Write a sequence for this structure.
């Protein structure tokens, strides 16, 4: 188990009472502002001493109040990347990176400087100072500095929150490489569903200081009721796909998933690229029969696995499409009029323009 957290902590009127475990490569702590996300990462990193509880990272006990154990933050080997890069303005990028080395004894240093520079694509920045860097370049440098301390865990507290969409698009692929290639587990704080859908392998959902759900990202993101504070429209399915071909005359790309083929707006990824695709529940319609004469390019056959029990106007219908789990959010009236029930065969209809481009992220299929 990579991470085991069971803590209780009071800060004024706010009470955090959080319990979860994760063995994911990138665990996202998700929830609205004030839900306790930053308090948890500060407890893991040693910036907050919880009133009671236990924190274990990769088998090492960092906090155990019952045994009076509290490992100082400088001995935890936990990397921390803040919302702002917090680089030293008077040092070059190279010098900022090498500063991370000071926190690890020489005989314990395993991480290659050149390897980190290559991983994050910052070789051309080494001689520059932070004031000349873009927001994305600053964050990549901050990540590199944290990695060069040879951490057993990397904490990232909303590292993309201060970036505009262009800078986010710039840094997403580097965090994906970090997740898939660096071999350092990550805990990412975020309140963006699109962000965690693209990056997370595991998700912990928080609300008012409590954990309301935790588990694999593909499972957690399928349940609308977990995202009520953020808007029901955020829920959806994550599926793995691969670029099958490009339909250049129509500016489209065809993806191959277990559920079938999916046609999306033209992507820049080469044929064969493995991708993670997010299909939002609100963008899926259901039909009892394979439709004909429709403009929608994506029609996937599937079987209803369950229907949410709810008194709301809309409900989630969970589908099994060739081993890929999808979810469609439809009205209860539609469920009644179509006679939808578990075990029934249906067709899921998805418009190609409904695909969330921010979550079409590349993945390395050789790593979990």
């Amino acid at each position: 188990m990579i991470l085991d957290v069971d803590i209780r902590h009071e800060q004024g009127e706010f009470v955090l009472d959080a319990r979860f475990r994760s063995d994911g490569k990138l665990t996202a702590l998700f929830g609205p502002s004030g839900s306790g996300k930053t308090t948890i990462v500060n407890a893991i990193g040693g910036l907050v001493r919880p009133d009671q509880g236990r924190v274990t990272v990769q088998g090492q006990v960092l906090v155990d109040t019952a045994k009076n154990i509290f490992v100082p933050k400088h001995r935890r080997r936990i990397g921390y990347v803040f919302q702002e890069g917090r680089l030293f303005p008077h040092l070059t990028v190279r010098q900022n990176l090498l500063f991370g080395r000071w926190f690890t004894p020489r005989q314990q240093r395993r991480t290659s400087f050149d390897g980190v520079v290559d991983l994050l694509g910052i070789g051309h920045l080494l001689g520059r100072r932070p004031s000349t860097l873009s927001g994305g370049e600053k964050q990549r440098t901050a990540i590199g500095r944290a990695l060069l301390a040879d951490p057993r865990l990397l904490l990232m507290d909303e590292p993309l929150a201060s970036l505009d969409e262009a800078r986010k698009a710039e840094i997403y692929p580097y965090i994906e490489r970090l997740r898939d290639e660096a071999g350092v587990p990550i805990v990412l704080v975020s309140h963006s569903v699109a962000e965690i859908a693209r990056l997370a392998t595991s998700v912990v959902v928080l609300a008012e200081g409590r954990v309301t759900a935790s588990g694999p990202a593909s499972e957690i993101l399928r349940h609308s009721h977990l995202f009520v504070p953020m808007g029901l429209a955020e829920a959806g399915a994550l599926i793995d796909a691969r670029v099958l071909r490009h339909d250049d005359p129509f500016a489209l790309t065809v993806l191959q998933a277990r559920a079938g083929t999916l046609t999306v707006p033209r992507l820049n990824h080469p044929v064969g690229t493995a991708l993670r695709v997010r299909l939002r529940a609100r963008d899926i319609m259901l039909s009892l029969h394979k439709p004909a004469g429709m403009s929608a390019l994506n029609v996937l056959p599937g079987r209803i696995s369950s229907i949410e029990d709810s008194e709301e106007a809309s409900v989630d219908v969970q589908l099994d499409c060739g081993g890929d789990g999808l979810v469609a959010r439809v009205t209860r009236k539609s469920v009644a009029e179509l006679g939808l029930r578990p075990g029934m065969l249906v067709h899921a209809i998805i418009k190609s323009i409904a695909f969330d481009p921010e979550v079409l992220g590349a993945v390395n299929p050789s790593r979990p």
